[in-house]
Amino acid sequence: MTDTADFLFELGTEELPPKALITLRDALAEEVRAGLEQADLAHGGIIAYAAPRRLAVRVADLATGTEPKPVERRGPAVKAAFDNEGNPTKALAGFAASVGVEPDQLTTLKTDKGEWLVHRHTEPGKPATDLLPGIVERALDRLPTPKRMRWGASRAEFIRPVHWVLAIHGDDVVDMTLFGHAAGNCSFGHRFHHPDALTIKHPADYVATLRESGHVLADFAERRERIEAQVTEAASRVGGTARIDPDLLDEVTALVEWPVAVAGQFEERFLEVPHEALIYTMQDDQKYFPVLDDKGALMPWFVTVANIDSRDMDAVRHGNERVIRPRFSDAMFFWEGDLKTPLESHLESLKQLVFQKRLGSVFDKVLRIERLADFIAERIHADPQAARRAARLSKCDLQTQMVGEFAGLQGTIGYYLARHEGMPEDVAVALDDHYRPRRAGDELPRNAVAQAVALADRLDTLMGIFAIGQAPTGAKDPFALRRAALGVLRILVEQELDLDLVELLTEAAEGLADKVPEATDHVMGVFEFITERQHRYSLDRGIRSDVFQAVSMTGTRRPLDFEQRMRAVNAFIELPEAEALAAANKRIANILKKTEETLPESIDEARLVESAEQRLWESVSAVGPRIEGLLAEGDYTEALTALAALREPVDEFFDTVMVMAEDDALRRNRLALLARINALFLAIADVSQLQS
C-alpha cells in the first residue's frame, strides 16, 4: 500500500481583493481536489485557507504516488491479424510496434463479437512529487480571476503580485516554480508584527505557526469568529450592540490578518441626519460596524477592526474618528439643504431625467404609476387618494442632495422628508416601501398604500420594457425584470392579495398607450414571464415541478390562487389515495383526449347498467355539491381531500366496466361520467400531471 503524508501549498501575494477572497479560497480547494482525482492520487480531507496576503490548501494523507494499474489495449481482430499463410499482417505489425512488443507477445481476447489481439501490461505508479506541480499550476490557472496583472519584468500573470511559494509533502519540499518563485518550506508572517520568514516544518503545523509566531490567523472562519466576538465585546463596553451585517463581516475578515477591534465615537449632533445615511457611510465607505442601543436606535459610536495590535490603540481610535467626521459633516450639510426644499418641488425636474428613451422621462413614469396605483388601491381596499399621492412623490427624492450622495438611500430619504413635512404616515412609508423587496429575502411593503405603489411601479416597468422589445435574454437583464417579477409575486402571494395578474398588466399596458400603442399585444408575454418566475419561486420553496405543472393546466391568472392550489396539491400527494387517483386521472384524460364524440351534458342514470358504474355515479353525486361549496370558499386542500374518496369506486369502475362499449348510448354515458370526474379535479388542478 502506498505511503501517505499531508501536503501543504501556500501562495504569498500582495493584498488580494477582499470581496473575492472566499471565492478564491473555495475555488482553489475544488480545483486541487479535481486535479488529484484526475491524477488518481489518493488523499484524505482538503482544507483551504485564505487571508489578505495568502491562499493556501492542506491535503491530509496524500499518497506519495499513484498505484500501479493494469492497462489493456486492444489491437486488430484475429481474422485481420494474419494472412492466409499465417503471417502477421501490416495491421498486426503496426499495432505490436506501437506498444513496443513483438507480435507473438500479444494475447488473445475472446468476446461474443469475435477474437481480438490485446496487449496487457502494468503501468507503474507515478510519484506525487512529479504530479503536484502540474496539479497546482492548473488549479491556479483556473481560479475565477477576471482581471490578472503582471509585475516587474516578469511575464507571469496573477490577480496580484506573488512574493513567495510554499509547497511541502510531509517533511519534504516539492520541487516547483510558480510566478518566478521556487517553492520552499517558508511562509511569512504579519507585514508589521513578523515580516520575517517562518519555517513550516510539517503541514499540520501551518495554522499554529502562523498564529503563534507570525501574528496571522490563516483560517478565514477562525478569523471571522474572532472579529465577530471582538466587535460584539467592544460595542458592549460602550453600552450598545453592534450591528453586524454578514457581508460586511466577510469583507472585514478578508481585509485583516490579525484583527483588533476598536470602538470609536462621533458627535451626537450627527444623529440628526437619517440614521440610514450614517450607517451607509460607516458600513460601505469605512467598513465600520455601527452600534445600536437597546431600542435599535443608532448610538454615537462605531467599532472598527484594525489589522495591527498597536502599542497606542488610542491613536488608532482617534485616527478613525478623524476620518469619519468630515463624511458625517457632508451628510449633515446635504440633509439640512434638503430640509429647506419641499419634496414635491422636485417633481418638475423629473421631466429632465430619462427613464427609457421610448418610454419617456421619470416624470412620465410617475404619472403612469399614479394611475395604476389608484386602480390597484381600489382592489386591495387601500386609500386611493393616499396611493395617488404616494405615487406622485415616489421618485422625487431622486433629485435630492442626499440621494445624489447616497444613491442606495432612494426611497428612504423620501420617507424622512415626507415625515418632516407632516405627511400622513401611510404616504411617507410608501415612499420607502414601494422599493421593497429590494433584494432576495428582503422585507415586503408594510401597508396597503405601499403595496399598491410597489406593484404599480414594477408592473409599469415590466410592461413597458417588454412592449419595446427589450425582454431579458439569457443572463442579460439590464432593467432587473426578473427581480421585478419576483417582487410582484412575493407581494401578491406572501401578502395574500388575490388579484388577476392579466387584468393588472392590461391596465398597465393601457397606461403606456401614448408611448407604445401596441403595448397591449405584449400582455400575455409578460404574464408568461411572471408565471415562469413563479415556477422558479415555487421550486426554491420545495414545491415539485409536476405540482406546478398540474396547477398551471387550470389556467388560473391569480398568483395567490395559483399558490393556494399548489399547497392543496402538495397536501394531496401525501394522501395514500393520491398515486392511484393520479394514475386514474391520467387514464381518464387519455380516454377523453382520444374520443371525438359529442358527450351528453348530463348523466343518464337509466343507462348505468353495471353495479360499479352505479356506485361511481353515487359517489360523484355525493361529493360533487360538497366540492363546489369548498371551491366557492377557495378551500382547495379540503376539496382535494374530499375527492380522495373517489379512489375505490374509480378503481372498481376501471376493473369491471368496459368504457368503450359497442352500444353508442352506453359508451357516451360512461364517457360523460368520466368527463364529470375529470372536471371536478380540473377545477383545482390536473392531477394527471403528477409523477408517481
What does this structure look like?
With 692 residues, the chain is of the alpha+beta class. It has a five-stranded antiparallel β-sheet with strand order 2-3-1-7-8, with helices on one face. It has a four-stranded antiparallel β-sheet with strand order 13-15-16-14, with helices on both faces. The protein has a three-stranded antiparallel β-sheet with strand order 4-6-5. Helix 6 (220-237) packs across helix 7 and helix 13 (412-420) runs antiparallel to helix 14 (425-433). The longest helix is centred in the middle third of the chain and has 27 residues, at 313-339. The radius of gyration is 36 Å and the shape is flat. The model has no long low-confidence stretch (mean pLDDT 90).
Sum up the structure in keywords.
25 helices; 692 residues; single chain; five-stranded antiparallel β-sheet; alpha+beta; 18 strands
